[in-house]
Amino acid sequence: MIEPIYAPDAGRYSNGMLYRRCGNSGVLLPAISLGFWHNFGDVDTFSTAKSIAHYAFDHGITHFDLANNYGPSYGSAEETLGLLMRKSFAPYRDELFISTKAGHDMWPGPYGNWGSRKHLFASIDQSLKRMSLDYVDVFYSHRYDPETPLEETLQALVDIVRSGKALYVGLSKYPKEQAEKAYRYLEKRDVPCLAYQGRYNLFAREPEQQGILEQAKANGVGFVAFSPLAQGLLTDRYLNGIPEDSRMARGAFLKKEALTEEVLSRIMALNNIAGQRGQTLAEMALAWLLKDDMVTSVIVGASSVKQLESNLKALDNISFSYDELEFINSIE
Length: 332
Ligand SMILES: NC(=O)c1ccc[n+]([C@@H]2O[C@H](COP(=O)([O-])OP(=O)(O)OC[C@H]3O[C@@H](n4cnc5c(N)ncnc54)[C@H](OP(=O)(O)O)[C@@H]3O)[C@@H](O)[C@H]2O)c1
Fold this sequence. Notes:
This protein is of the alpha/beta class. Helix content is 38%, strand content 14%.
């Protein structure tokens, strides 16, 4: 049978998604966004990837987050998005907010990574081709490059916006001092930084401890949290061992050594509080990030529609009592 043409759910903007303004910009992002780091590569099953992306869009997730080297293989997550654009989403391009990044290892040789103008320009052109897009909504410098003048990286971002290849720019994982300089530089050139993307979850609290969250807010920059579930640790995935189909069993980015007795006991304690709140641990972990307006959006990963479906339930309750917060902090 020929596959029917994708028709998104007519109720996609009235089924509970929250939208938050990204810093001082005109852009609203969904509180929960979808990341393509895992599960969208050419080693994965396209039909599953497609179902996850359709489910996301059908439930108000307008923001998909990519990078040049997401896969594996490198580039293949962007190719998957390109296929999805051609098959499903082309008529809805203006309802989607798509990001990509450059700066990590991508192709061999001296121009295949980091923050040179050469790398950033070549990478955005490759990304646009793979994704079948004329422009991305936000282009991130994926990491700070200590060996390239910061001005070179930032001017390349400015010029990429001026050339129409990206609407906004963002920074990912920049140290606080360099982020401050970057915010100034970009603002002066009328290409203000839209968003800072950093790892933030119940087990990784550096953005609040180092003042990165406050800094973003003070500069009118949105904060987008990646790995909000600590790659799956902050879910029920590992409560009873390591499932064969889990990220930890695959072992590339989440190592078995991460699941120490101590971590497991913290997971269990958090799981108990979640239960008392009537939430799963994953729901509570996402709700905790979204409890106030410091975080614009959390980018979740999902290996199944079921996971995404349950993660969206986090939005049903994002308030915490003082006692709950105290108890959570004591587990940290
Ligand atoms: N800027 C950067 O440098 C950077 C770095 C990393 C990530 N990111 C972005 O952030 C996105 C999210 O990162 P992440 O994938 O690490 O996020 P995550 O949400 O912390 O982890 C996602 C993984 O957790 C498991 N999971 C998710 N929901 C679950 C549920 N309800 N129940 C049980 N298990 C669940 C799944 O793993 P299983 O495979 O085990 O099912 C899933 O693949 C990436 O796709 C990427 O877009 C950016």
